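Researcher: Hi, I'm a grad student and pretty new to this. My advisor asked me to get structures for two proteins we've been looking at. I'm not sure of the right format, so I'll just paste the first sequence and hope you can take it from there.
Model: That works fine. Here's the first sequence with its structure tokens right after it:
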Amino acid sequence: MVKVQQEKRTRFVVLAALLGTCLLVVALHYEARRRGSVSLPEEGALAVLTPLQGTLTQFAFTLRERGRSIRRIGEIEHENRELRKQVQDLRNRNRRLNAKYEENIRLRKLLALDLEVPNEAVFAEVISLNTSNWFQRVRLNRGRKDRVAPKDVVMTDAGLVGQVIDVSRHTATVELIIDRESGVGARTMQSRATGVVRGTSEPNCELAYLDRDADVRVGDQVLTSGLGDVYPPGLIIGEVTEVHKDRHGIRHSATVKPATDFARLEDVYVRKGLRGAE
């Protein structure tokens, strides 16, 4: 803004000087024509002023073009601001569309799972998360009115989530398999080694109580065994990522990475009426 004002002042001074010079040159020419001759002082003045007039004219032209450039720069800056705003609007719209797309993918997977599930089941959304050093639980937007009950099994399209432990009319509380209070009877798909998947309140679980000679290896798939009164057999829990044995071979356990991504848990599937073997 200051630069534009300075440019205007400079242009005004140059134009005033140019106008004054032009008037002086015209006056000298007029006086010379009136007398029919040019005096020596007038000839000297014209010799000085005529080139100066050309210089001032060129300078005025340069200033005019520079003024146009400055105005154009202002217009370009305004256009850039508008374009940046449009780009930000498009980015926001793209993020919203991506979120809708991901939600659509999740729902399609759950719908595909629905075709495979013979038991009555309902979709649900996670509406709150309750985490502490010991407890890992979520609340769903389904409850008694949807015939959800304690011990109902909760899943995603990827695998096991946990079990319903408390129900109100409109909501249900789910104990996740990563909760320290959680214990799921499990077996490996490859060697059929059995144990209990326990929560650690961390992203991974522990496959405990393995037989000392159990053939458990990294990469083994871990499924529910059906032992207990909650989980039926064959539900996907996760994958073995580490195997642990002490020097004496007494303690044998494994680290299991859950198939469900609990950090991004949004939509789940409540499978009602499923029970394990008591």
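Researcher: Oh nice, that was easy. Here's the second one.
Model: And its structure:
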Amino acid sequence: MLFCFLRQAAFANRPALGMYPPSEFAQILSETLLSVAPRGINQVQTMACGACSVEHALKGAFMAYRRRERGGSPPTQEEIETSLLNTPPGCPKLSVLSFKNAFHGRTMGALALSHTKWVHKLDFPSPCWPFATFPSLKYPLEEFADENNAEDARCLAEVQDKIASAKRAGQPVACVATEPMQCEGGDRYGSPNFFQGLQDICQENGIALLLDEVQTGAGASGKFWLHEHFYLRDPPNLVTFAKKMLTGGFYYTPDMRPSEAIGKAPGQRLPWFPSSSLEQGPMPTEENLLRRTAQPVSPTKTSPDRDHRIYGRHRYIYELHLASPDQSTLYVESRPKKSFSGQLDRNERTKYLPNY
């Protein structure tokens, strides 16, 4: 305790509340998280974990939606007073559209977006938010191109219908939240065509697009962010991260930034601007982990055609297709291990994988 009082800076700095951040905080963010930010995004907010990253990203989407509705004007006295009563207009009836088989976390808002296992949701109250069907693609992709295009179109039409229905019900959609790949939902992939169409729908309706990269970010797909394989016209409004990033948080576009963060009502916005511990900050810089991970994948000498096979631990062989730089990284096929007996040793397995 005495040490804290002697070191006033250590005692006063409270980045977890957004107050008095360390003087080097901006530099730490610039050298670590912002150095690997998704294309077209140069703003980031740190958090503690994946679920709270989703929670606060949703807050950003709600605030941006209401700010546009107000035309940039400050909240009215009625909005201020009714917000304490959990009633409109202070607590508006907005919604978030998610997808079947999605998983975004176990806190209340993130759990409302999750639709994988009943054990996560049973006995917990939840807002009645809409959810649509995530595409279920057939493999090999090249043999089912027509069927998969039809599946994308069907799911996008359902998204449009859900958005229109929510608006008619007086609960307009402020944000569409989805994973680039449904992980807990069974490793379900969406195509670039689907995500490009989803972004078009969001932009046409003034809705924020949130891509949850908590499980898919940090290079596992061959690009640092899996959504980079989709070649979106514009960056997504919000991109959440955690797990392999050694901290939580989300990237966001300028239109998501609260205009009241500093000035008239700082306390109103500080819950959206907390900061997780900075203990992990120097390590990625010293080891250059983020930049090393962000390096593009190169084909191995044993597979010049850029087709790689990943041999699972059990009965199946998964083929990973990287046929050309402009195609998405997708697991295109799995088949039984009939031609291999026993467990491959480490060296024999790794020669089938890309060099990092």
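Researcher: Is there anything I should tell my advisor about the second?
Model: You could mention this: The chain has 13 helices and twelve strands.
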